[in-house]
Write a structure and sequence with these properties.
Layout lengths: L1 H35 L5 E7 L14 H14 L8 E5 L5 H9 L3 H4 L5 E7 L2 E2 L10 E2 L9 H4 L1 E2 H11 L5 E6 L21 H8 L2 E4 L17 H11 L7 H19 L8 E4 L20 H4 L6 H13 L10 E4 L1 H4 L5 H14 L4 H14 L2 H14 L4 H13 L3 H14 L6 E4 L2
Parallel strand pairs: 1-2, 1-3, 3-7, 7-8, 10-11
Antiparallel strand pairs: 4-5, 5-6, 8-9
Helix pairs in contact: 2-8, 8-9, 11-17, 13-14, 14-15, 15-16, 16-17
């Protein structure tokens, strides 16, 4: 009887061993598949805070510029769709707003498996030795340095949100979050005694983390140009061969440049950028084009508060106002006739659909459909057509004008004005004043 039991257990062990042998190649194959799978779509949240509500927090000269420059790199060089990147600067980067955009209103709603997510912070950070429980915090606009637990952004909350609410295993977290500079030694403010530990953060998030310096070091704002040393060096590395450069190669170039500049400009100081990864797959190329990009869902866009990118566009438009040529029209009123005046719009729409099907790679035919839909009063469907067009041609001012008119007709006046701002930004020769008519 004992023999049969032993034989039975031996047989079970053999079966289990066989199954494990069969499973091992399957796991290896899955890992290979994970390494080779393309990036489906790309999203980003970019945050920069230089001025803080609590004036005891030292001001950072270049934090907002660092964030703007990183934002510009993503949409101009790295093929991120503009409406896939949210820019939060200064007072728009409150604790509530940052966590909302990360965990409920934006990334958590749009990101799908195989998507790439980039999260960038340029602000003050507090290393773990500043907290009685050893926690790391980032400073939001409304953080009170005397009460980090209640008003700061705990790094663990960010890591938990990445793991539990953003449904992808491809997340890059970039932290330029410990800046050098003087502060009152008697105040209980942000004491920049060190930076975060990239290895611990990567372990917590399971993703890829880049920090601007080692835990025992500080991060410097440059004496040579209007940026933090880390952000400027990293962007230079990424742009050096943007269509082919991997993040690893860009980081190594940046790490060397940072160390050289800080050693030369701050005798006795050191700044060593760090990168730690739990990444599964090939070395990341931020500029790779998305394999299956999607449009930002209207339901999401309609609930998002305006970010700092629209303010940036408005500033650029204002700076170009003096460049309007003499004799240029000073006012444009958009109405249905501006976009389409077909004698028989229903017949024209049927023809436009047939033409678009025959020329499915040519945007002009999609745009004609959208304009006729405006004439027919189907503004929701027209806006969907325009949104798709803007994924491929985000700088086309005509599309922005048409989409703005659709938003106006749909009662979304803030979104409509944002589209007008974008149109004027991409075509400064447009009239300074653009309005809508029923």
């Amino acid at each position: 009887m004992r023999f049969f039991r032993a034989a039975r257990y031996g047989l079970v062990a053999c079966i289990l061993a066989f199954l494990m042998m069969c499973h091992a190649p399957l796991v290896a194959a899955q890992q290979i598949d994970a390494a080779a799978r393309p990036i489906r779509d790309k999203w980003a949240l970019v945050i920069g805070i230089g001025d803080f509500a609590d004036k005891s927090v030292p001001r950072l000269k270049y934090a907002t510029k660092d964030a703007r420059d990183f934002y510009d790199y993503l949409i101009k060089d790295a093929h991120f769709a503009p409406d896939h990147v949210r820019l939060l600067l200064d007072d728009k980067a409150s604790e509530r707003r940052i966590m909302s955009e990360l965990g409920s209103k934006f990334l958590a709603r749009v990101v799908k498996p195989d998507d790439l997510v980039v999260i960038f912070f340029s602000t003050h950070g507090s290393p773990s030795q500043m907290d009685i429980r050893g926690k790391n915090y980032l400073c939001a606009y409304d953080t009170e340095p005397n009460d980090l637990f209640a008003t700061g952004i705990e790094m663990q909350k960010i890591l938990d949100s990445i793991q539990g609410r953003v449904l992808t295993d491809r997340v890059l977290l970039v932290l330029d979050a410990c800046h050098s500079g003087s502060t009152d030694p008697n105040a209980k403010g942000i004491i920049r005694s060190g930076n975060f530990d990239a290895e611990q953060l990567a372990e917590g998030s399971g993703q890829l983390v880049i920090c601007s310096s080692k835990p025992e070091e500080q991060s410097f704002e440059s004496k040579r140009y209007d940026n933090g040393v880390f952000t400027r060096s990293l962007l230079n590395g990424l742009r050096s061969n943007s269509s082919k450069a991997t993040l690893g190669a860009a980081f190594q170039a940046a790490k060397s440049a940072i160390a050289d500049e800080v050693r030369e400009d701050h005798p006795g100081a050191r700044q060593t950028a760090t990168m730690h990864s739990k990444w599964v797959g090939n070395d990341l190329n931020l500029a790779v084009k998305a394999d299956k990009p999607q449009a930002l869902p209207v339901s999401v866009a309609s609930e998002l508060e305006p970010d700092s990118s629209s303010a940036k566009v408005a500033m650029a438009i204002e700076s170009k106002a003096a460049e309007v040529p003499a004799g240029q029209a000073k006012k444009l009123i958009l109405n249905v006739d501006y976009f389409s005046q077909e004698a028989n719009p229903k017949t024209a729409y049927t023809e436009a659909c047939a033409q678009q099907a025959a020329h499915f790679n040519e945007p002009a035919y999609y745009f004609r459909k959208a304009k006729i839909l405006i004439q027919l009063g189907n503004y929701s469907k027209a806006e969907q057509e325009l949104k798709g067009l803007l994924v491929d041609e985000p700088n086309n001012w005509s599309y922005h004008l048409a989409r703005g008119f659709c938003y106006y007709k749909l009662g979304k006046k803030i979104a409509a004005q944002d589209q007008l701002n974008l149109a004027k930004f991409h075509n400064p020769s447009l009239p300074v004043e653009i309005g809508f008519a029923d």
